[in-house]
Write a structure and sequence with these properties.
With about 575 residues, the chain is α+β, with helices and mostly antiparallel strands. It is built from 15 helices and 13 strands. The strands form three sheets. Strands 1, 2, 3, 4, 5 and 6 form a six-stranded antiparallel sheet that branches. Strands 8-10-11-13-12 form a five-stranded mixed sheet, covered by helices on one side. A two-stranded antiparallel sheet has the order 7-9. α3 packs antiparallel against α4, α11 runs antiparallel to α12 and α14 packs antiparallel against α15. GO terms for molecular function: ATP binding. It is found in: Membrane. Keywords: ATP-binding, Kinase, Membrane, Nucleotide-binding, Phosphoprotein, Transferase, Transmembrane, Transmembrane helix, Two-component regulatory system. It catalyses: ATP + protein L-histidine = ADP + protein N-phospho-L-histidine.
Length: about 575
């Protein structure tokens, strides 16, 4: 039997029984109402009239108005004759009352007869009340029987539906749900077995057909290929950087939402089209396709591209990555396409600008109070303002030394801000390499002590002077040492070397950290670049600024590193 038919029969029968129960209840309630009304309207009124006539009969000898009261109630009784024999008794009462009136109420025999007549009327009505009460009780008993029977049937049917119906519906649904979960988990051997011929049986049959087709589909190579393709597309689409993939014929084969958003195209307008053709209608794609060399074997890096994205002016770094594979059975790689990636460097440029402005502002603001302190120290040292004792002179000397140090630091900050804005101001002079080293070591000694790192100094003696800006050179060496401390393990050793090689003075800092992949050794001196997976606490500008400092002085800067053997950063100047 169909589930719909079961529901219709069960709920329909329950509905009919409820209607029947309602009709029976209403019918018996009306019957009880009629029986009660018959007692109240007919018999109760007669008893009331009889009582009033008895009271008036007793007062006839004493009160003149008692006859009128008796006559009035007698007339009402004559109009309310409802029981068998009640009319005859009432007529006899009327005849005896008339005889009493003619006798002027002096014959006691008529009083006795009238009381007997009234008693007979009351007896007839009392018997009627008892009879009608029995009939009402019988009606109530029948009502209880019928209502109880119908209610019991309703309860049995409702209880049967409550016990069987949820299970008949929920159990197949639960089994089907579990089977769907198995199918979702790629268990395509799952089947549903419903022996009934209802809707669930039809659903199970359709489900089993679907599972069988999915099992056949999953067993094919096509499904695995499509699954891998879907996985790669999802990974690419979830990347936060714009990515465009090209085949060997410069046809766009994939792109993510980030790339579509900045180029202003829909996916169906890009996929399957040559990037050169798309570049005819799009300035950004024209810039990406400019000088595109699909036969390159190494990634290329261009200058940052300015793009209006995310509601503001943004900067992206373009990178071309050629894709080469070695076909099965061959040894030579084959070029199959190219990937264009745009790395959003806007946050780094904003951080760079904010840092530059902050450094310039703070350095400028610090110079005024420092100069004021130095002027106050000069006034204190002037004997015209008063003499100082030895302790005061020592304090003034200490303040003067700290003021000079702060003034040098603010000067360095201003110089760094000038470098970052492209306006480098150099103060070249013959400098001692030992003094540059001493300055850098004093700047990082606290950080080295915190990690219990030892410095191994390998400094040749004697060393010639070199014509450099000592403050900027010391800043670069300090930056090298800070990076070496950051990436060295605790209680490690950092080797600092200064030696003369073929009329070139070379400074080098070697750490025993994890090293740098050779793919990135030429890029770490670029602005904003950070090695993937490294500690990204900085902005990626330190090494770029160092490179500008050294090259502005005519020197050379570089790094020698490999994974697992540490890194050696160096710079050199001609002597």
């Amino acid at each position: 039997m169909k589930t719909k038919t079961k529901l219709t029969l069960g709920v329909g029968l329950l509905f009919l029984l409820i209607v029947l129960l309602s009709v029976i209840s209403i019918w018996y309630v009306n019957a009880l109402k009629k029986d009660t009304e018959n007692i109240l309207v007919a018999n109760y009124k007669t008893l009331a009239y009889s009582r009033q006539m008895l009271i008036a009969l007793d007062d006839i000898p004493e009160r003149a108005g008692s006859l009128d009261t008796f006559r009035s109630n007698l007339e009402k009784q004559l109009a309310n004759l409802t029981e068998p024999g009640e009319g005859e008794a009432t007529n006899k009462l009327k005849a005896h009352f008339n005889e009493l009136i003619r006798d002027s109420g002096k014959n006691d025999a008529y009083y006795k007869l009238i009381r007997q007549d009234i008693g007979e009327i009351m007896r007839l009505n009392m018997n009627a009340i008892a009879r009608k009460s029995d009939a009402a009780s019988l009606t109530a008993e029948n009502a209880n029987i019928w209502i109880g029977t119908t209610g019991a049937l309703c309860f049995i049917i409702a209880f049967t539906l409550l016990i069987n119906l949820p299970g008949n519906i929920a159990n197949p649904i639960r089994e089907l749900t579990n089977s769907i979960r198995e199918i979702t988990a790629h268990n395509y051997h799952q089947r549903v077995h419903f022996e009934s011929n209802n809707e669930f049986g039809e659903l199970a049959h359709s489900f089993n057909i679907m599972a069988e087709k999915l099992e056949e589909y999953a067993g094919s190579n096509l499904s695995r290929l499509l699954m891998e393709k879907k996985r790669i597309e999802t990974l690419i689409n979830n990347m936060h950087d714009p990515v465009i993939g090209l085949d060997e014929n410069q046809v766009v084969i994939f792109t993510n939402n980030e790339a579509l958003q900045i180029v202003g195209f829909k996916k169906e307008e890009v996929i399957g089209k040559k990037i050169i053709e798309l570049a005819l209608y799009n300035d950004l794609l024209r810039l990406l396709a400019k000088d595109l060399n699909l036969q390159e074997t190494k990634p290329t890096k261009k200058e940052p591209i300015k793009i209006f994205a995310d509601g503001k002016e943004s900067f992206f770094e373009k990178e071309h990555i050629p894709i080469n594979i070695v076909p099965t059975g061959e040894t030579r790689p084959q070029f199959i396409g190219h990937v264009i990636m745009l790395k959003n460097i806007t946050p780094f440029r904003e951080l760079d600008l904010a840092k530059t402005n902050f450094i310039a502002t703070v350095s400028h603001e610090l110079k005024t109070p420092i100069s004021s302190i130095k002027m106050s120290l000069e006034l204190l040292n002037n004997k015209l303002t008063g003499s100082l004792n030895n302790e005061q002179q020592q304090l003034v000397a200490g303040i003067a030394e700290d003021s000079n140090r702060l003034l040098r630091i603010t000067g360095e900050l201003l110089n760094m801000s000038q470098v970052e804005t492209g306006n480098i101001q150099l103060n070249l002079r013959q400098s001692k390499p030992e003094e540059i080293l001493h300055y850098a070591l004093s700047a990082v000694q606290t950080a080295a002590d915190h990690k219990m790192i030892h410095f191994d100094l390998q400094v040749e003696d004697p060393l010639p002077n070199v014509k450099v800006d000592p403050e900027k050179t010391a800043w670069v060496l300090t930056n090298f040492l800070s990076n070496a401390i950051r990436y060295s393990p605790e209680q490690g050793t950092i080797i600092i070397s200064i030696r003369l090689e073929a009329k070139v003075l070379r400074f080098s800092v070697k750490d025993n950290g994890r090293g740098i992949d050779e793919r990135y050794t030429q890029r770490i001196f670029e602005r904003y670049f950070q090695i993937p997976g490294s500690n990204r606490s900085g902005s990626g500008l330190g090494l770029a600024i160092s490179k500008e400092f050294i090259e502005a002085q005519g020197g050379e800067i570089g790094v020698e590193s490999a994974l697992g053997i540490g890194s050696t950063f160096y710079f050199s100047f001609p002597v």
